[in-house]
Structure formats: C-alpha cells, structure tokens
C-alpha cells in the first residue's frame, strides 16, 4: 500500500455562506467516514486558512528563526487534507474525486515516496 495526500488550498474555495459551509462539512465528513469504513483513511483535517497559521520557521546559520504567522509573500494556504493508504494511483484518484464532488472544489493528489524513492 502507498500513502497519498489529497488536499486543497483555501484560495481554491469560492466564497460560501455559513450554511453552505455547514452543508459542505456534512458532505465532506460523509466521504471521510466512507474512507474510514473502507480502511484507507490514515488522517484528515481541515478548516485551515491564513488565520490558523501559528508561525513560519526557517534555518538561519543552522538555527531556527521563527516568525509569527505565514510568510506575507505566500499566496496560497492549505485548506484541508486527507491522507489515505491505498494500493495505487487509480484508487487515490477515486477518493480525491469523491471529495472534489462532495465539496464541489478542486483537490490535489500527491503520492508520498516509498523507501528508497525520490
């Protein structure tokens, strides 16, 4: 099995009313529960945006330097994600498609490299 990250950036989500967001939450959680029932869900979370950023950290002269919040230059912020453990790209695409359809906003799929892969 291979782990995949299915994610979306907050900027990909058009403006919604509070009621629409609640409905999307119900639809998204239903897909997450389906993933759990199929035994493929590793972890998921969401409701992330610029306001949830705690800090940025970079290495300067071999030491961590922390800055409150995200980098100002950053145009996109992670909005939510699910990590699934599935046998192949096709199955990862299936679950990303289920989320994209339930939420009606784009998803992106990344395969985590296995041992010895780049």
Automatic annotation (TrEMBL):
A Pfam family assignment: YCII
Domain of life per record: Bacteria
Gene3D superfamilies documented for this protein: Dimeric alpha+beta barrel
InterPro entries, per database record: Dimeric_a/b-barrel (IPR011008), YCII (IPR005545)
Domain YCII-related, first and last residues per copy: 27-98
Family: Belongs to the YciI family.
Protein name, as recorded: YciI family protein
Source organism of the structure: Micromonospora globbae
Lineage of producing organism: Bacteria, Bacillati, Actinomycetota, Actinomycetes, Micromonosporales
